[in-house]
Amino acid sequence: MNEIELLWGDFRLPIRDALHLADGNSYDVALSPGTPSGFRLLGAFDLHQMLTSEPDWTSEVDGLKSVELAHGGFLWGGDGSYGSEGFVARLTPDRSLMWAIFLTESNPFQEIQLHGKIASFMSTSAVEITVDIDDPRRPVSEAG
Questions:
Q1: What tens digit of pLDDT does each residue of 52-103 get?
Q2: Domain span holding position 107
Q3: Is residue 144 part of a domain?
Q4: Could you tell me if 61 and 87 are in contact, meaning their C-beta atoms sit under 8 angstroms apart?
Q5: Are the C-beta atoms of 100 and 80 separated by less than 8 Å?
Q6: What is the Cα–Cα distance from 108 to 65, expressed in whole angstroms?
Q7: Residues 117, 135: contact at Cβ < 8 Å?
């Protein structure tokens, strides 16, 4: 198991604005209101290195909203250990992680809208993240 899978086993994510994939790849992200996705994908980073230098820099996550997917699994959105944190994720039917985005200043995500393979997550502070559920690295168009 890689680092993100181990963390997810305890429903924890690193405290860093980032996208994490189940294959172990992690990418920094930045909120970008006004863009179709609501965030920008930045460069990849080494999660192992981050956790080696800051092993306790993780947040427990808890879901507030879920949406079942037609072909199994579900989307999940919620909060972290601190009030300003939020996360969105796609999980397998047994709650294994496919991908997750954690944001330190979004507030909890409490609404999910699914249109085909495009999902929009809305936080309690009106932060909106829109992703292709099959690959959240893939840009979404204005039309979805």
A1: 999 999 999 999 999 999 989 999 999 999 999 999 999 999 999 999 999 9
A2: 3-48+58-132
A3: no
A4: yes
A5: no
A6: 10
A7: no
